[in-house]
TrEMBL record, chains A, B:
Name of this chain's protein: N5-carboxyaminoimidazole ribonucleotide synthase
UniProt cross-references to InterPro entries, sorted A to Z: ATP-grasp (IPR011761), ATP-grasp_carboxylate-amine (IPR003135), ATP_grasp_subdomain_1 (IPR013815), PreATP-grasp_dom_sf (IPR016185), PurK (IPR005875), PurK_C (IPR040686), PurT/PurK_preATP-grasp (IPR054350), Rudment_hybrid_motif (IPR011054)
Family note: Belongs to the PurK/PurT family.
Organism name: Microbacterium mitrae
Purpose of the protein: Catalyzes the ATP-dependent conversion of 5-aminoimidazole ribonucleotide (AIR) and HCO(3)(-) to N5-carboxyaminoimidazole ribonucleotide (N5-CAIR). Catalyzes the ATP-dependent conversion of 5-aminoimidazole ribonucleotide (AIR) and HCO(3)- to N5-carboxyaminoimidazole ribonucleotide (N5-CAIR).
Taxonomic lineage of the native organism: Bacteria, Bacillati, Actinomycetota, Actinomycetes, Micrococcales
Sections of the chain in a coiled coil: none
Reactions catalysed: 5-amino-1-(5-phospho-beta-D-ribosyl)imidazole + hydrogencarbonate + ATP = 5-carboxyamino-1-(5-phospho-D-ribosyl)imidazole + ADP + phosphate + 2 H(+)
Amino acid sequence: MFMRVGVIGGGQLARMMIAPAVELGVEIRVLAEQEGMSAALAATAVGDYRDIDTVLAFARDVDVVTFDHEHVPQEVLRAMTAEGISVHPGADALRFAQDKLDMRRRLTELGAPQPDWAAVTNSTELATFLDAHGGRAVVKTARGGYDGKGVRVVDSANGADDWFAALAEDANGGALLVEELVDFTRELAQQVARRPSGQVVAYPLVETVQDGGVCSEVLAPAPGASAALLAEAEALGVAIAEGIGVTGMLAVELFETRDGRILVNELAMRPHNSGHWTQDGAATSQFEQHLRAVLDLPLGATNPTAGNAVMLNILGGPLGQTLESRFDAAMAAEPGVKIHTYGKEPRPGRKVGHVNAAGADAGAILAAARVARDFFA
Amino acid sequence: MFMRVGVIGGGQLARMMIAPAVELGVEIRVLAEQEGMSAALAATAVGDYRDIDTVLAFARDVDVVTFDHEHVPQEVLRAMTAEGISVHPGADALRFAQDKLDMRRRLTELGAPQPDWAAVTNSTELATFLDAHGGRAVVKTARGGYDGKGVRVVDSANGADDWFAALAEDANGGALLVEELVDFTRELAQQVARRPSGQVVAYPLVETVQDGGVCSEVLAPAPGASAALLAEAEALGVAIAEGIGVTGMLAVELFETRDGRILVNELAMRPHNSGHWTQDGAATSQFEQHLRAVLDLPLGATNPTAGNAVMLNILGGPLGQTLESRFDAAMAAEPGVKIHTYGKEPRPGRKVGHVNAAGADAGAILAAARVARDFFA
């Protein structure tokens, strides 16, 4: 029985693993980037996750290593594995969350539905793609970004010249990813969990409502989704999890197109914002499920306990104040809404917490959650 | 806004406050009796809760003091209050959980239904009570016990002579409590939460199944309870909470008699075993509710989220092994059952954890929970 889990990264995802860890008797240790982060209560070390010695020193004292984020470099991941340390998800799976071109190639091999895409290394290749796709496309850097952003809509062959120039300078470089602009009606997310010995379970498909490129609301299950769509998304999630060999939680971000198809947008290999509703709305929260999966324990039931659930992010928060200063008003107005905080200072656009609500009436819980959320503006 | 809660006592009730504290952003600090207790993750101090200096030093660094148990002496409670420290529940309320004669007297004043009782100081008074109640009765020490036990069924006037003798030696002494033997069909529990500013909310009445004097199973809501019974129990719980001025969670343990009455057996002024089902079965767990109440925050909704819920204690556990050694089998057999551990070593009769299940079908969740629980024998 292995019960010491080390989490690399001290953000809110690590923080939200603490509650189920305590209940299950899992000893959770966090390697935080700095003092005072969201997961500070469980932070047993502070250091740079890019430094092999720092990470190895942390990892040697736990039974399983997992992650708050996907940014641990491949060479650090492989150094742990070389020492016999159990790492979930492993380097071979995480590669597909770290490099968008690797992801697109692998999804193509798996036959997963996705936007038209190409790897492009110069403006001529980009022009060819644009010509074939109505003159507009999305260009993405495969890893990270060169100007703090890694996604750009272009409508000219020269629209990514600065990134092509940077590529040439970059030892990791190679190509940019270009994707068709998808005519989607909404975004969806399919979460699954997979344990090393192979068991996979799926959560119900959810709708993720975006506001300015940031997830603002999640509706579970996805409203109006047909049984066929739910089954298709679940099968896709399971096939991807197995195809890339992920362990732990996997979120498959999807576009639903005007003509009724689903296309894979992104992959996340960790608990994900689209699954925070499970804390108060599913038999097993994604954070408990992630712990169970990385410990290779049998996975928990994923059914929504009250029929429907919603999650609304608290973005920004009350500037210059604390979230707690709004508890009195929000709790008095909506006693059925659950408030989750990340221990972060409010800052414009920052995810500082979320609210959940669950119940039989999807409209009523959404309305209640919005009232509660709005007290934190 | 006061958000640092100090909990005196490091047992499982303190441990189970950690999860909601993390989510709400409440800083929880525990004064544990020793190292390595259930609530060790949040233990910031170790010391004797009967020592005024130890407790004051701990309490000065938090905003609100509350409890894992009811054993903190009145003089220690009053020393905190005298320093202006916010203590919930307060000394005046806790008195009724610490002294069973005080409890009976106050319940009589409040008109609460309870077994016939009397304060007796000698065998002659006990004989009078026995004569009036069919020759048998329950004798209880008002505070703690003289021989490790504080409850005894007697059928002779001399059946408590050793306790009367001890009373005479005891500075705290005074009288024993004698109660009629109630002809009850089952035991029930009514939980309410009350905040200092007065708001009170009630959970649904539950049935508590006892096995050899220890709670083994809790069924929520109490099976077969009429609307009238549910309302009567709720009104009684609210009246007692207000009548004794309790803050935080209150559990009213009840007998249901053969002739359909409910009688108060005991009071507990803290989260209680009869409410562990709320962790996975109610909109607000009793542990979150207790934190909200002692912080004087608006109280949360108490409705069962999935219709019904059950809680089964893990008593004893697998001797010589860990609870975790049984996770694989229990989780594989019952993926919908939630396992909670207390970080304690198995020992005969010891409460080392519990399992919860929630769902629409009361029979099915009880059966599933029993299967899971039995793996921990």
